[in-house]
Write a structure and sequence with these properties.
- The chain has 331 residues and is mainly alpha-helical.
- It has a single domain, classed as Rhopdopsin 7-helix transmembrane proteins, CATH 1.20.1070.10.
- Helix 1 packs antiparallel against helix 3 and helix 4 packs antiparallel against helix 7.
- The N and C termini lie far apart (79 Å).
């Protein structure tokens, strides 16, 4: 939402709320994705079909995470963009690549899991890593085509204070709302319906057939929980509130002002923080796609526990020895 003449909306909320979220996501997301990608690349020769999609999610996350320090500076400076018009558009483009690329590759993983359980013999044997690479290229192209019109909307405006809008300037908000609704349908609603359809059928198969491998059931359940977390926390609130916020801006342009506008604005900013958390939550998919990672996590925890426990045991041992020495001298 852009600054207008509606006194009921506190437009300064984003300047205080978003910078700490961005820097936290940048640090945690970079560490988590870097470690996950390293684990996948170490097993490159044994790369499985599903890991190709996971690898692409990691690349999309890294692209977006590298833009967060610039956005943090932007909001700390009170929505003053100092990095140029071109880089503003690149930054917003990377966000959309990450968002819709993640949704696209998660949908591919869901379809793959569906085929592995429902059609294990008829289809799965025909799928190769080459097929998954070709599908990944198609996902990148499709997401780029969907995000490309966003680049042609005005992203910066003003003589003394240039903004870098995540949507566009108030002048073009009606056209952007139409584009956003179509974008939401193609880039979010359709993949969501495909994912729900896959897991609905998987649930029926797992419930009716007892011959399904327990490992397959566990993997499907883990992935389902991860997807529920990502869609319910990151994707659904953002898309609902982005379009609602754009509609409010259209009403503001028509000289309408209501008290609930501020609630929509604040909720939209919170949804923007939640949607960038997908770069922190996406590495959970690594746990599903790579069996070695949980074992590596257990090893790290086992190594970390003695480090944190040694000072306590050493100090307690020193205290007890000192007490014994004092007691012997006193006797």
């Amino acid at each position: 939402m852009n600054n207008t003449t509606c006194p009921d909306v506190n437009f300064g909320f984003e300047h205080k709320f978003l910078p700490p979220v961005f820097i936290s996501v940048f640090i945690v997301g970079l560490l988590a994705n870097g470690w996950g990608l390293k684990s996948l690349l170490q097993k490159w020769r044994k790369l499985k079909i599903i890991n190709v999609f996971v690898l692409n999610i990691g690349v999309a996350d890294i692209l977006y995470l590298l833009t967060l320090p610039f956005l943090m500076v932007y909001y700390v400076m009170g929505s003053k963009w100092i990095f140029g018009v071109t880089f503003c558009k690149i930054t917003r483009f990377c966000f959309n690549l990450n968002l819709y690329g993640s949704i696209g590759f998660l949908t591919c993983i869901s379809v793959y899991r569906y085929l592995a359980i429902v059609h294990p013999v008829r289809v799965m044997r025909r799928l190769t890593v080459t097929h998954s690479v070709a599908i990944s290229i198609m996902v990148w192209l499709l997401v780029s085509v969907q995000s490309l019109p966003n680049m042609f909307f005005i992203k910066t405006f003003g003589n003394t204070t240039e903004s870098c809008y995540d949507t566009t300037h108030q002048t073009y908000v009606e056209d952007y709302l139409k584009y956003s609704l179509g974008w939401t349908l193609a880039g979010f609603c359709i993949p969501l319906l495909i994912t729900l359809g896959c897991y609905g059928h998987i649930a029926i198969v797992l419930w009716t057939k007892k011959r399904i491998d327990k490992v397959q059931k566990q993997r499907s359940l883990k992935l389902l929980l991860i997807l529920i977390l990502l869609f319910s926390v990151c994707y659904i609130p953002y898309h609902v509130l982005r379009n609602l916020n754009l509609w409010v801006r259209v009403l503001l342009k028509q000289q309408m002002c209501y008290k609930w506008f501020n609630g929509v604005y604040v909720a939209h900013q919170i949804s923007r923080a939640l949607v960038c958390l997908n770069s922190v939550l996406n590495p959970l998919v690594y746990l599903h796609g790579n069996e070695d990672i949980p074992a590596q996590l257990r090893q790290l925890l086992q190594r970390a526990c003695p480090i944190f426990s040694r000072p306590t045991s050493t100090n307690s041992g020193n205290v007890s020895m000192t007490q014994r020495t004092n007691l012997s001298h006193s006797v």
